[in-house]
Here is the input.
Amino acid sequence: MDISNNTVLITGGATGIGLELAKQFIAKGNTVIVCGRRESKLKEAKLSLPQLITKQCDIANIDQRRELYNFCIEQFSAINILVNNAGIQREIDFRKGEADYVNGENETAINLEATFHLTALFTPHFMKQKESAIINVSSGLGIVPLVIVPIYSATKSALHSFSISLRKQLENTTVKVFEILPPIVDTELDNGARDKSGQTNKGKKKKKVAIESLNAISKDKFEIPIGLVKVLKIGSRINPPLFLKILNKKTPVQPL
Ligand SMILES: NC(=O)c1ccc[n+]([C@@H]2O[C@H](COP(=O)([O-])OP(=O)(O)OC[C@H]3O[C@@H](n4cnc5c(N)ncnc54)[C@H](OP(=O)(O)O)[C@@H]3O)[C@@H](O)[C@H]2O)c1
Here is the structure.
């Protein structure tokens, strides 16, 4: 697809991979809107990238998702790309009963429901555009789960399945469906969990992830595994137990 002269909404685009995608899209002559909950991060992003349009929004909230959609359609009617990027990752230990599950943010609402709902809101508008795209950011953990973040891994697996169905539903329309599957990336997604567990691998540079993703999108490569996820995709089919073991080696389930 042509990756210039588009109008792009990136959820969670004030930090991390989303912000790098925003930078790359802007560098290629696109208009970019980002949303997030923290006003401070939106302001920081705008300072570093003055062309950026920012909008505060909690995508876990159904009314705020509708408000975001209305804002985009009313002010940027040419909008034709939605990047479902916002996400959180939580360690949840089911051996403790409901404690971890209920005390904290709703991963399913942020990582999954928001993607479903925003996709439903924007798709009819996108179908009227000459060319448009929905870009879902899933994860290598959607292919092989990291056991200590079970809901996160499950939401990413679901996003992978959803991307396949959506691509097929929309194949005779102007809407292209892409899925970016990053490996470990140097962002704050894990809230310092990697440091805590003594991991020295900070992962792939987010700029490289963004550049590789846009390059693949420009060539209409719809499924975009980045770095080691390419190995994970093939290896997990050949020997699932081995890849589950390798992936979970550095962060084993601790005894209670
Ligand atoms: N880093 C990795 O190793 C890695 C690997 C594979 C996939 N990914 C995926 O990449 C995507 C981006 O993550 P990242 O690594 O760049 O981490 P990040 O810097 O923490 O980015 C996540 C963004 O999502 C936003 N967000 C979270 N909850 C939100 C909500 N309810 N409403 C609106 N915005 C919300 C956050 O902003 P606020 O908190 O201000 O709302 C933040 O800007 C995620 O989907 C993640 O699962 C990351």
